[in-house]
Design a protein that fits this description.
47% of the residues lie in helices and 22% in strands. It has seven helices and ten strands. A hairpin with a 2-residue loop joins strand 3 and strand 4. Its main location: membrane. InterPro entries: Band_7, Band_7/SPFH_dom_sf.
């Protein structure tokens, strides 16, 4: 598991390295005086580079994972100039949030219909030990597992409820519920890499091109049927109200035959797609 450490400040080590480098130059400048200056100069120069190798700068929202001959030493997340054992090997890992714009995938929904789906994922490294040692390449791992999660999500729910009227959740109308399910699955899949999912949203959702036209016609037909149903319900109510008002106010008495004719005419007028053309009857009701 991740272990945070705080190395010693690197400013003192940097000062020593500068002083050692100056002393080495001074020694090489006095080679003619004594051969010992050659040995001293070489030793000081080696010491200078040895100290400089142990210096490291950590920028904001970055970290260094330290390793000593195959053994995990710890992780440095503090910012600044630090000095560590020059024999440590280091791995740079960014702690900044990153966006993953997944490619648009063509998959089958729960009902077997081909659809196109894509997602935008915001993620960041939370555990540097897992990111560095539990997976070979954590960025590639995020891309692959994110695609697998989106594919699994698409196959778990229908695109809409045209074929599955009892579906409680659909991809098109699921909204925040579908996004929450995607976030949870991504968190479970990417936990082994120490990655935290901050947000996941469906960015593209549509029927595949080969069935898009047919599905559009089906949706239009369903919308027309629903609209017609409401129109009929309203027309029946209006006819009922008209007959009731005529009867209550004793405006005209209609037998069953005339009531049927009136109902038929009103339903045609109210439910017709085009405006009705009125015909004035100058005779009686029976002519």
């Amino acid at each position: 598991m991740e272990k945070l450490i705080k190395p010693m400040s690197g400013y003192l080590a940097l000062l020593i390295a500068v002083a050692s480098f100056i002393a080495a130059i001074f020694s090489f400048a006095n080679i003619d005086t004594s051969s010992l200056y050659v040995v001293l100069g070489v030793a000081l120069m080696i010491g200078t580079f040895f100290i400089l190798k142990g210096l490291m700068i950590i920028n904001p929202n970055h970290s260094r994972v330290l390793n000593f001959f195959g053994k995990y030493v710890g992780t440095v997340k503090e910012n600044g100039l630090f000095f560590v054992n020059p024999l440590y090997s280091t791995i740079k890992i960014s702690l900044r949030s990153d966006n993953l714009q997944g490619q648009t995938l063509k998959v089958n929904d729960k009902m077997g219909n081909p659809i196109e789906i894509g997602a935008v994922i915001v993620w960041q490294v939370g555990d540097t030990y897992k990111a560095a040692y539990d997976v070979s390449n954590y960025t590639s791992y995020v891309r692959t597992q994110s695609e697998a999660a989106v594919r699994h999500l698409a196959g778990s729910f229908p695109y809409d409820n045209l074929e599955d009227e009892g579906a409680e959740i659909t991809l098109r109308e699921g909204g925040d519920t579908v996004n929450h399910i995607l976030e949870q699955e991504l968190s479970d899949r990417l936990a082994p890499a120490g990655v935290i999912i901050k947000e996941a949203r469906i960015s593209h959702l549509a029927y595949a091109s080969e069935i898009a036209g047919a599905m559009l016609q089906r949706q239009q037909a369903a919308a027309i049927v629903a609209a017609r149903s409401k129109i009929v319900d309203g027309a029946v109510g209006m006819v009922e109200m008209a007959l009731k008002k005529l009867s209550e106010k004793d405006i005209v008495e209609l037998d069953n035959e005339k009531k049927a004719a009136m109902v038929s005419n009103l339903m045609v007028v109210l439910c017709g797609e085009k405006a009705a053309t009125p015909i004035v009857n100058t005779g009686t009701l029976y002519q």
